[in-house]
Amino acid sequence: MRDVEVDPIALARLAALLTPDRADRVRQYAEYAPQLLEGRVIWNVNATAQGCGVAEMLEALVAYARGTGVDARWLTLAGDKEFFIVTKRVHNLLHGTPGDAGALGDRERNHFEAVTAANAEELRARVRPGDIVLLHDPQTAGLVDCVRRCGAHPIWRCHIGRDTPNALTDNGWDFLRPYLEGAEGFIFSRARYAPTWVPADRLWVIPPSLDPFTAKNDAMSEGAVAAALEVSGLIDTGAPADDLGFTRRDGTLGVVRAHRGLLHDGGEIPAAAPLVLQVSRWDRLKDMQGVMLGFAEHLDEMPENVHLLLAGPDVAGVTDDPEGLAVLTECMDAWRELPVPARRRTHLACLPMDDGDENARLVNALQRHAAVVVQKSLVEGFGLTVTEPMWKGRPVLASAVGGIQDQVQDGVNGVLLADPTDTAAFAQLLAALLDDEARAERLGSAAHTRIRDEFLGDRHLIQYVGLFRALLGS
């Protein structure tokens, strides 16, 4: 296991963005939380410290909790390739998809338990009686019993799920259930994700939230956006390299570096071209290839100078997702099969992962530059890649699945695609959005308001305090 160092951040920074009544409310909870939790540590355990929405949320929430005087800490699991293959298999099943269609038999369960046992040994050396341990997603499910044996309170948080269960989701829950039944609380992003065997009095619904002050979401001037995209080699803006600095999570100064080779295919993206962007992991459920084919097959319906960019992480830097390289390879092979005109206007990029803050800054710049941000996921637990561009006031076209529906109100603050497999409908909605700049601007403005009102960290932190109060009987 690895300790992830997180510096405290004063909650006043977030409160400055809130209405006076919201700011007062979160201050009251911030004053109450250290009294409620006096002497206890709040532990968070997940699979990785970078490259996913869970890690980004933990970075913010742990920092704000520490800023209020709560002793909040963060650990990541140690696991080998086979362990993450097994847990990715469970991840896909909980989404109701077969994934690699691999087995979850005795061999896989034994290996999962062996890796869990090694992590449990390290966890036991840290956790004390009375502590509260938030275990995130399938990778951590086997640690519930360890936490109980330590005399601490285990809460399992699941960031994934499917609105309509099927035989595949049942298989995934059958694998996890023996490990989870002893949890004192279960947190889901949507109530419909919870299996029927979760007791109602232990079920909590807490959607994710966005931190406006990270390198991914902080304000950027037009000059800073243009400079970052130029020096990174992502878009040919021609901007001078004189506005490349940004503030890291720890408060130190970072600088966007010069890169070459981040764009794998398609040549340079002209700065003047309207850009359609999807930022996601290289995960089949994000349907990067479907976005590409829907765009290419209906290119004649789009404005003549529009370009598409599919941006994901450098797969070598994402340790807990063994499918990333295969999905990226499939996308690159599909790109090579496109007609030449479509190839020239379709691009794939792998963003560097050796500096998480710089990666976030590049995503920020791309989202702010984009004319339209899409998220054509086949299923989606929540979708912070929707929350982020909405916060930046960008028009979003996304699938009407999972937690995306909790964020995007169709025609009010974004556009929803009813059937994520319908590439013709996707292209039609996209073309209409690109052709109507006034509508796109209205949707983007409403999107920012939606995230400000419903999906910032004050709501998230208050819900956690409510959960802890109920758990401790206070």
- Poorly predicted regions are none
Shape: globular
What would CATH call the class of the largest domain? Alpha Beta
Q: From the 3D coordinates, which CATH architecture of the largest domain would you assign?
A: 3-Layer(aba) Sandwich
Radius of gyration: 22 Å
Written overview of the protein:
There is one protein chain. This protein is of the alpha/beta class and 474 residues long. The protein has two domains: 2-209 and 456-472, 3-Layer(aba) Sandwich (Rossmann fold), CATH 3.40.50.2000; 222-454, Glycogen Phosphorylase B (Rossmann fold). It is built from 17 helices and 16 strands. The strands form three sheets. A seven-stranded mixed sheet has the order 1-3-2-4-5-6-7. A seven-stranded mixed sheet has the order 10-13-12-11-14-15-16, sandwiched between helices. Strand 15, helix 14 (404-407) and strand 16 form a beta-alpha-beta unit. Helix 4 packs across helix 7. The longest helix has 19 residues, at 106-124. The model has no long low-confidence stretch (mean pLDDT 94).
Write the layout of secondary structure elements.
Layout: E1 2-3, H1 12-15, H2 20-36, E2 41-46, H3 53-67, E3 71-76, H4 81-94, H5 106-124, E4 132-136, H6 144-149, E5 153-158, H7 167-180, E6 185-188, E7 203-205, H8 222-231, E8 245-247, E9 253-255, E10 263-265, E11 275-279, H9 288-297, E12 307-313, H10 324-336, H11 340-344, E13 346-351, H12 356-369, E14 372-375, H13 384-391, E15 396-399, H14 404-407, E16 415-417, H15 423-435, H16 437-454, H17 457-472
Parallel strand pairs: 2-3, 2-4, 4-5, 5-6, 6-7, 11-12, 11-14, 12-13, 14-15, 15-16
Antiparallel strand pairs: 1-3, 8-9, 10-13
Helix pairs in contact: 2-17, 4-5, 4-7, 8-12, 9-10, 9-15, 13-16
